[in-house]
Specification:
The chain is mainly β. It is 14% helix and 53% strand.
């Protein structure tokens, strides 16, 4: 008997402040020990943006001001029947005091240091693209349970031009 794939809806949020981005070092699986954007599943009755705002408050104690959708990804876990339909957001903070949660400890990371950080695989690929103002990123990423990408195809729309980024 085959197992039907499970599809869940999530939001991934990259909070920025000038030349730094808020990353969270994950305490739990998946991706324990790796750095990630803040993220979580969309609850029944929520919009993806409402979920993004809730997750940032729950995981970091911050209330968002601007929360702009910058993309949508289908994240396929090739080692188990799970697909995450993820909306990507870039946000700024309105108020709050940064704090950790059971998910992990959020830290402001200078953008220049991001490429040298042990990021979750899909974050490593997508973060530089979604942080570019005027960008919209759409595509699919197939990954291992560890978060390491197996293959991806992304369409990066920026100021009227589209670039296809892929790895087979």
């Amino acid at each position: 008997m085959s197992t039907s794939p499970r599809i869940v809806q999530g939001s991934v949020i990259f909070v920025v402040d000038g030349d730094r981005v808020l990353l969270l070092q994950r305490n739990h699986q998946p991706f324990a020990g790796k750095w990630d954007g803040l993220q979580g599943l969309v609850e029944f009755g929520e919009t993806p943006e409402e979920a993004a705002r809730r997750e940032v408050y729950e995981e970091a104690g911050l209330v968002l001001d601007l929360c702009e959708q910058r993309g949508h990804l289908l994240l396929y876990n090739v080692e188990r029947p799970l697909t995450i339909s993820a909306d990507l957001f870039v946000a700024t903070v309105r108020e709050g005091t940064l704090r950790g949660s059971e998910e992990g400890e959020p830290v402001w990371v200078p953008l220049a240091d991001v490429p040298h950080t042990d990021l979750v695989g899909f974050v490593h690929i997508t973060l530089p693209l979604v942080l570019t103002p005027g960008s919209l990123l759409v595509g699919t990423i197939r990954h291992l349970a560890s978060g390491d990408p197996v293959s991806y195809e992304l369409r990066h729309h920026h100021l009227g031009e589209t670039q296809v980024v892929r790895q087979a």
